[in-house]
């Protein structure tokens, strides 16, 4: 069985057994998603890159102790999130670097694509305004799709704490992003806006 065809757990086992290529395959397989988590949490590409590198180094060293009590992706997420939170605590007074809107030489995007990118930037800016204790669970639950229980395990906090922090964060986001929700509601049957808002806030 080739490394590329192996499961995550098999790659971890192969790495622990001395396979020099197994961990590289694991990194290649999950790097993009872990990068997205780090970037959304830290807001700074340089900080996110450093946190991701630290996380993968930690995972490389700790892989031999992996006991398959959770999915490998959950284990990696926990390490990445912890690395990000450590950096957040260390940079409390440091100014943040805005995410670039476009790369050098990027061609002009069609209007729909530009609108989608503007929306993503607005949402990212709103997330940036949240305290780190609220931003991390919201990124995991609402952006990455983890359950409350999984998020609690990743962050090492109680499920009730995850729910309360998400609720407070969503209430703040609702104030900032209400105009986006209203725009989408206008395309539906009149009267659905209030229902959609309530469902979104109770999610």
UniProtKB/TrEMBL annotation:
What are the entry keywords? DNA-binding, Sigma factor, Transcription, Transcription regulation
RNA polymerase sigma-70 region domain location: 26-92
Region entry Disordered: which residue ranges?
95-114, 184-203
| A GO term for molecular function | DNA binding
Q: Which domain of life is it from?
A: Bacteria
**TM stretches of this protein:** none
Every copy of the RNA polymerase sigma factor 70 region 4 type domain together lies at 122-173
Reply yes or no: does the keyword Transcription regulation apply: yes
One GO biological process this protein is involved in is: DNA-templated transcription initiation
InterPro entries, A to Z: RNA_pol_sigma-70-like (IPR039425), RNA_pol_sigma-70_dom (IPR014284), RNA_pol_sigma70_r2 (IPR007627), RNA_pol_sigma70_r4_t2 (IPR013249), RNA_pol_sigma_r2 (IPR013325), RNA_pol_sigma_r3/r4-like (IPR013324), WH-like_DNA-bd_sf (IPR036388)
**One Pfam family per UniProt:** Sigma70_r2
Q: Which family does it belong to?
A: Belongs to the sigma-70 factor family. ECF subfamily.
| Protein name, per record | RNA polymerase sigma factor SigM
Q: Which organism is it from?
A: Actinosynnema pretiosum
């Amino acid at each position: 069985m080739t490394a590329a065809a192996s499961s995550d757990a098999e790659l971890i086992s192969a790495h622990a057994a001395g396979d020099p290529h197994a961990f590289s395959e694991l990194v290649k397989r999950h790097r993009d998603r872990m990068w997205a988590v780090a970037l959304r949490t830290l807001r700074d590409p340089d900080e996110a890159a450093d946190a991701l590198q630290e996380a993968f180094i930690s995972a490389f060293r700790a892989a031999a102790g992996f006991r398959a009590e959770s999915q490998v992706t959950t284990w990696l997420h926990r390490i990445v999130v912890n690395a990000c939170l450590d950096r957040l605590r260390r940079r409390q007074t440091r100014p943040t670097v805005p995410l670039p809107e476009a790369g050098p030489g990027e061609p002009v995007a069609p209007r729909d694509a530009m609108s989608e990118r503007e929306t993503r930037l607005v949402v990212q800016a709103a997330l940036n305004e949240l305290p780190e204790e609220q931003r991390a669970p919201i990124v995991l639950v609402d952006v990455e799709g983890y359950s409350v229980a999984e998020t609690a395990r990743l962050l090492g906090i109680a499920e009730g704490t995850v729910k309360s922090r998400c609720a407070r964060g969503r209430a703040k986001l609702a104030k900032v992003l209400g105009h986006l929700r209203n725009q989408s509601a206008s395309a539906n049957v009149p009267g659905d806006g209030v229902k959609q808002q309530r469902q979104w806030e109770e999610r």
